[in-house]
Structures are given as C-alpha cells and as structure tokens.
Amino acid sequence: MSTSLLLDQHPLSPYAQKVRILLREKGLAFECRTPDGLGSGADNPDFVQRNPRFEVPALTHNGATIFDSTIILEYIEECFPTPPMMPAGAVAKARMRMIEEVCDTHYEAINWGLGELRFFGRGDEGMRQTLYAVAVEQVGQMHAWLQTLLGDESWLSGASFGWGDLCALPYVTMSSMFGLPPAAGSRLEAWLERGMKRASVAETVAEALAVIPIMETRTEAVKLGGFKRHYRDHRLEWMIRSGGLQVVLDGLANDNIRFTDLARFAAWKEEPSTGS
Ligand SMILES: N[C@@H](CCC(=O)N[C@@H](CS)C(=O)NCC(=O)O)C(=O)O
Question: Is the CB–ligand 1 distance for residue 171 below 6 Å?
C-alpha cells in the first residue's frame, strides 16, 4: 500500500490552501488532483466512494482517505510532527483552533458570497450592490478581529509562523483578491506581507490566483444549469442573512444550486486500510 500523499483539491479552495501550506511547511512531497465533476453536481463514483461528501480537500495516505481540512491538518500534524505548527499549551492550541473555526465558517462565507457575485453572476444589480456592501463591512469586521488577536506579535501563532497563520492567510489573500485587503498601514497588512514572503504561502496563493480567469468564465455555465453550486451551512446562512434570500429562491427555481446529498453516505462502503 502506498504511503505517498495524494491531495484531492481545487487550487482556489481556501480549505485546500490550508492543507497545501501545511504540507509545504513540513517539506512533504504530495500529489495534487482535482476530482472530475467537482462543483458541478455531476457524479464521480470513484471519488465519492473515498469521500462521500464530494468535497475538497481530501487526503489519501496509507490507503485511508480523510476529508475536512481541519481533520486533515490534525492528521498531518500527528503523522508528521516536525516542524510543529501547533504551539505548545492548551490555551494556545485552543486559540489556534478558534482562529481556524471562525475563518473556516464566518470569514469563508463572505469570500464565497463575493465569488457568487463575481464568478457566478447571482442577483440583479440592486441585490448585487446590497450583498457587496454587506460583504465589505463584514470583511472589515473579520480583519479587526484578526488584528486584535495579532496584537504586537509577528504572527497569529505568536513569535513564529504556525497554525493560526496558515489557517487565516487563505481567507485574507482571497478577500484581498476581491479588492478588500487589510487597511493600508495596519498591523494586519504587515502580517499579510510577512506571510506572502514565505515560500509555502506564496506558492499556494499563486496557484489559487492562476485559476481566477477560469472561474470568470463560469457565469454562463451556472445560468445554463451545467454548474450547480453547493449552498450549505454558513454559506447558505450568509446568503440569507446578508439580503440574498431571493438568490436562494432563484437558484432553487432554476435548479442551479444544490444541498449536501446524504444518500452518498448511505451508499458508501468501508474499504480495507493499512492504517499507520
Ligand atoms: N468543511 C470542509 C469544507 C470543504 C468545502 O466546502 N470544499 C468546497 C470547495 S471550497 C467543495 O469541495 N465543494 C464541493 C462543491 O461545491 O461541489 C473543509 O474544511 O474541508
């Protein structure tokens, strides 16, 4: 059984970016692959058998496939502890996990909403302006929180780069790409610049930015029903509470949004794993 690391992912996915940064920080070689049908709603039985959530990232190692970026990060840290990315101490660890949780849910939803506007052309002009204005305010709120956590330290993880930084950077670089960077001259801006100087981050963010032109060709595919966007959890909540309930209703009427398919879990079969 192979002990190599295979990462099913998409370059732009912030969740996959967290994993790529961590693997690179640890100097681990890994293979990347984007599953066929990802994001379109089309089926991919081979990938779904390994990951019934049909999401990326998923990491295959020693015959086992692990989904969810948080679980993957914890797995990598346990299997490959050097250099450690999680700081010592229960409080410090909890702080890193809180940064990760808030960024993966509240912050991610804002960037996702900006993507629904820019890449997938959701809403009429008035709704688009409303949603954009809400997103601008919310990104500012996330940046204020991160800057408070940063304090006078160089990194969210303290004196050295670590878990909190690699979990927050994909979101701050993504909203910067949408034209909403940290305030000029702020400590958060200086942190972002420091982060972008790390090879692990620079390479990962460059891969994400390289696919933006492809994303910008997707608006028509969504309108024609060839691309059904996954509306779930914090993303669905973001769209509704930010003023986009009509986007959800239109998406249902036009059959170009979808929700998690639990039948994939029912059909899933355990495969033998060597474990480690
Ligand atoms: N909680 C999951 C979220 C993963 C996720 O939402 N991935 C998105 C890409 S950013 C995805 O694969 N979506 C599948 C789809 O849209 O079909 C994690 O942390 O890995």
Answer: no
User: 89: CA distance to ligand 1 center in Å?
Assistant: 30
Which of 9, 10, 15 to probe ligand 1 with, by most ligand atoms within 8 A of CB?
15
The two structure tokens encoding residue 64: 């086992």
Pairwise CA distance, residues 267 & 249, whole Å? 29
pLDDT in tens, 82-102: 999 999 999 999 999 999 999
- Tell me how far apart the alpha carbons of residues 188 and 99 are, in angstroms, rounded to a whole number: 14
What is the structure's pLDDT at 1?
46
Residues 6+ apart with CB under 8 A from 26: 76, 80, 82, 83, 85
- With beta carbons less than 8 A apart as the criterion, state whether 56 and 13 touch: yes
CA–CA separation, 5 and 80 (whole Å): 12
- The length of the chain, given as a count of residues: 276
Give the burial class of 152: count Cβ atoms within 10 A of its Cβ; 0-12 exposed, 13-18 middle, 19 or more buried: exposed
Instruction: Quote the CA–CA distance of 96 and 243 in Å, as a whole number.
Output: 31
pLDDT in tens, 215-270: 988 888 887 777 889 999 999 999 999 999 999 999 999 999 999 889 999 999 98
Distance CA 3, CA 190 (A): 39
CA distance 228 to 39: 7
* Phi–psi pair at 3, nearest 5 degrees: -100, 10
| Contact of 156 with 190, CB cutoff 8 Å | no
Whether the CB-CB separation of 30 and 39 falls below 8 Å is answered with: no
Closest CA to 120 of 270, 254, 268, 14: 254
Cα of 227 vs centre of ligand 1, distance in Å, is: 15
